[in-house]
Write a structure and sequence with these properties.
Blueprint lengths: L2 H17 L5 H13 L3 E8 L11 E5 L4 H7 L7 H8 L4 E2 L11 H11 L5 E8 L5 E8 L9 H19 L12 H11 L4 H8 L3 H15 L4 H9 L2
Antiparallel strand pairs: 1-2, 1-5, 3-4, 4-5
Helix pairs in contact: 1-2, 1-6, 2-6, 6-10, 7-9, 7-10, 8-9, 9-10
Length: 240
């Protein structure tokens, strides 16, 4: 592992550890701003994905957007044409903005969204879709000009983003986290090794248990926490 790669991992876990001490949404914004800037990100937003009857500005949980962009985005109802939002609804995997395709000729408003965003230094981006088991849809989207997005940094950004979302949701809706079943030590260990990229077989060898047992621990943890994937389970496990 190179020093550069190690720094990304170190920053990710330092960021995650700091979240527990944050008491307000503004605290989360400040910490996100500092940590995500190391990857080149200048702006970010955590928002629900509005249904046809909802206004975009009513489902935003947290944002650090350039002055004027939020008003422009809301006024033009860009959320209905934004290719980033569209891809969020159709995938559970994190993606770079460049992966959100659209037809510049056939979808002029989609093109307008992306073109206008560049006026606010929102040239490139990374987005984490969030799909809850009860149908809730949200995302964390980050942007900037010169970004460090690679196969080495994406796992760190994924985990940091999910943990940030979980922390802000807990701050805004603490009652939703009451009565959560506690994880066992083995369940937490299995999730942490999964977040580090280890397979069930690798984790079994590390912990001295069978691959089947590791899988059972992960499944059990996911059933307790209700996440849609292992990374989200790790995010929740860290905060319990």
């Amino acid at each position: 592992m190179t020093g550069h790669m190690f720094d990304h991992a170190k920053e990710a876990f330092s960021f995650i550890e700091s979240l527990d001490d944050l008491e307000t949404p503004q605290d989360v914004i400040d910490v996100m701003d500092k940590s995500f800037a190391l990857f080149g990100f200048e702006n970010f937003i955590i928002t629900g994905l509005p249904n046809p009857k909802e206004r975009f500005e009513h489902v935003v949980l947290l944002k650090k957007w350039p002055d004027g962009w939020f008003e422009t985005y809301s006024k033009n109802d860009y959320v209905r044409a934004d290719p980033i939002i569209r891809l969020c609804r159709n995938t559970v995997n994190p993606f770079s903005w460049s992966e959100a395709s659209y037809d510049r000729v056939g979808e002029p408003k989609a093109a307008d969204v992306m073109d206008r965003a560049t006026d606010f230094r929102m040239v490139k981006g990374f987005c984490l879709p969030i799909h809850g088991i009860n149908g809730y849809e949200a995302c964390l989207s980050m942007s900037g000009v010169d970004l460090d997005i690679s196969s080495h940094t994406k796992p760190a950004l994924h985990l940091m983003s999910m943990c940030a979302f979980e922390r802000i949701r807990k701050l805004l809706s603490p009652s939703a986290f009451r009565g959560t079943n506690q994880l066992t030590l083995r369940e937490r260990e299995a999730l942490v090794w999964a977040a580090a990229g280890k397979s069930a077989a690798d984790t079994g060898a590390i912990l001295g248990i069978t691959e089947r047992t590791v899988t059972a621990h992960i499944v059990s943890a996911c059933q307790k926490l209700g996440p849609t994937n292992k990374t989200q389970a790790v995010a929740r496990a860290i905060h319990i």
